[in-house]
Amino acid sequence: QVQLVESGGGSVQPGGSLRLSCAASGFSFSTTTMRWYRQSPGKEREFIADISTGGLLTEYADFARGRFTISRDNSNGTVYLQMDSLKLEDTAVYFCYAPQRGVWGQGTQVTVST
What we know:
mainly beta; seven-stranded mixed sheet; 50% strand
């Protein structure tokens, strides 16, 4: 069964950090580009970051560059999103996505509040 399972969400104050994880199963993770997206209430799902199969190439949305870091561990089939200097507007449900497989995770809630 092809599956992506996110974890690591939670509540944090502005300026704080969180590290999201996405565990993949049921497909060849090491040959699959991986991405993170997020969706806030009433807004479209938006792209955050992309990482190549080997982890050497990454791409970020403007709002994420410099604050978020995508990485992956092909030995355990997991992609990560390190989020630093979090802002109120980063509150959203965060999803991982395997574009070549067309598979989304169920999402994990991140809430940034004072």
